[in-house]
């Protein structure tokens, strides 16, 4: 069997250099566990950076992919398709508002499409986003993203974007005006430090948008599909957006995104946007199987219960380097008093994979199917490295 060292050396020789890679070669996964080329097992709290809510190699999704791969993989949206029609109907049936849906290939593509649709529907061009917000790395999504280290190397970006403090309804109200096409918000800031929206903030944003005639765009690329304890995080507030942006776990780890446009806006004009691969039959089959699994296994409820249990257990440890623990469902962040990177390596050495969320927040994104026994091991590893 090929070793970690061989895989790492080969990939390092040819890769772009863009990614700060960790020294492990993962070759197999099952549920919430991953295995490297040397046979070591890891508990996955990276969760495909939010794309593996169903864990790895979920049997229903694997079966759907295998069947569709032997039937038809490519069918652009200039033609109708049975898998696409079935998935669109299923997704529309679980959305918290009536919608028309555009299918694409990633979270950044969903954001880009949502921004274009907002300008098209409003006839305006300005977009208000938030400090610490992260919406992607393509030029439009990057313009909405706040963190200077992502933005500055690529300036000048798309004009017409402004940023206000997250959670401050008064600051948002003062910035939205008759030129504002859209307000773009995350219900929980993930990359920005795992910060749930304060009570009443999303409702206030909806009121502000209505008063000024702007569209409300909700970015659920990371929080969608059960992560926060509801199928969609906006359901915690009851707020209905004009446009909902989805990706990551929509197709159980395969590259897919979706933009749901409220039915009140009607259908979009033909040719205003498009994509070659969006809505292809293979991904629609995978996404349909994933959506059914979220329902059949009651995974949003599981995320709510496991997340509350995990927060309670971590809080009770009173870990010395931890300033604050926050989260919603199985999206959990530990804000540290120091930089997070050394602790990520220490956790890897303990057999736990975790993420940063900014320079000093340790983020946990385990698959929703994770068992309590694995969560106990995560807690033990955190206690070891943070004591």
TrEMBL record:
The keyword Cell wall biogenesis/degradation does not apply. Pfam families: Aminotran_3 (PF00202). The keyword Cytoplasm applies. Its cofactor is pyridoxal 5'-phosphate. It catalyses: [amino-group carrier protein]-C-terminal-gamma-(L-lysyl)-L-glutamate + 2-oxoglutarate = [amino-group carrier protein]-C-terminal-N-(1-carboxy-5-oxopentan-1-yl)-L-glutamine + L-glutamate. Binds 1 pyridoxal phosphate per subunit. Pyridoxal 5'-phosphate binds at residues 107-108, 134, 219-222, 276. GO terms for molecular function: transaminase activity. Keywords: Amino-acid biosynthesis, Aminotransferase, Cytoplasm, Lysine biosynthesis, Pyridoxal phosphate, Transferase. Its EC number is 2.6.1.118. This is Putative [LysW]-aminoadipate semialdehyde transaminase. Catalyzes the transfer of the amino group of L-glutamate to [LysW]-aminoadipate 6-semialdehyde, generating [LysW]-gamma-L-lysine. It is found in: Cytoplasm. Its main location: cytoplasm. Belongs to the class-III pyridoxal-phosphate-dependent aminotransferase family. LysJ subfamily. Substrate binds at residues 137, 275. Homodimer. SUPFAM superfamilies: PLP-dependent transferases. The modification N6-(pyridoxal phosphate)lysine is found at residue 248. Pathway: Amino-acid biosynthesis; L-lysine biosynthesis via AAA pathway; L-lysine from L-alpha-aminoadipate (Thermus route): step 4/5. InterPro entries: AcOrn/SuccOrn_fam, Aminotrans_3, Aminotrans_3_PPA_site, Class-III_PLP-dep_AT, LysJ, PyrdxlP-dep_Trfase, PyrdxlP-dep_Trfase_major, PyrdxlP-dep_Trfase_small.
């Amino acid at each position: 069997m090929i070793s970690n060292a061989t895989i790492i050396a080969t990939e390092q020789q040819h890769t772009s250099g863009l990614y700060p890679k960790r020294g492990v070669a993962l070759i197999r996964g099952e549920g919430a566990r991953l295995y490297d080329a040397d046979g070591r097992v890891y508990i996955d709290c990276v969760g495909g950076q939010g794309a593996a809510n169903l864990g790895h190699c979920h049997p229903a999704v694997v079966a759907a992919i295998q069947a569709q791969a032997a039937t038809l993989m490519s069918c652009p949206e200039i033609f109708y398709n049975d898998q696409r029609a079935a998935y669109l109907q299923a997704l529309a049936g679980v959305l918290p508002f009536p919608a028309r849906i555009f299918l694409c290939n990633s979270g950044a593509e969903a954001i880009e499409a949502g921004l274009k649709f907002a300008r098209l529907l409003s006839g305006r061009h300005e977009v208000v986003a938030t400090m610490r917000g992260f919406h992607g790395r393509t030029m439009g999504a990057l313009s909405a993203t706040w963190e200077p280290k992502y933005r500055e190397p690529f300036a000048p970006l798309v004009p017409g974007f402004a940023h206000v403090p997250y959670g401050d309804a008064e600051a948002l109200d003062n910035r939205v005006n008759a030129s504002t096409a859209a307000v773009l918000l995350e219900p929980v800031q993930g990359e920005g430090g795992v910060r749930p929206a304060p009570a009443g903030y999303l409702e206030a944003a909806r009121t502000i948008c209505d008063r000024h005639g702007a569209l409300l765009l909700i970015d659920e690329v990371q929080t969608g599909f059960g992560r926060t304890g509801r199928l969609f995080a906006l359901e915690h507030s009851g707020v209905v957006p004009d446009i909902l942006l989805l990706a990551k776990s929509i197709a159980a780890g395969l590259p897919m995104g979706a933009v749901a446009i409220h039915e009140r806006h009607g259908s979009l004009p033909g040719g205003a946007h498009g994509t070659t691969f969006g809505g292809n039959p293979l991904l629609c089959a995978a996404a349909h199987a994933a959506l059914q699994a979220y329902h059949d296994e009651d995974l949003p409820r599981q995320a709510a219960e496991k997340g509350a249990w995990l927060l309670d257990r971590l809080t009770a440890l009173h870990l010395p380097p931890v300033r604050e623990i926050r989260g919603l469902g199985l999206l959990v962040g530990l804000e540290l008093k120091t930089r997070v990177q050394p602790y990520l390596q220490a956790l890897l050495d303990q057999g736990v994979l975790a993420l940063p969320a900014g320079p000093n927040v340790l983020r946990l994104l385990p698959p929703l199917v994770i068992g309590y026994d694995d969560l106990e091991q995560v807690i033990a590893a955190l206690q070891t490295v943070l004591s």
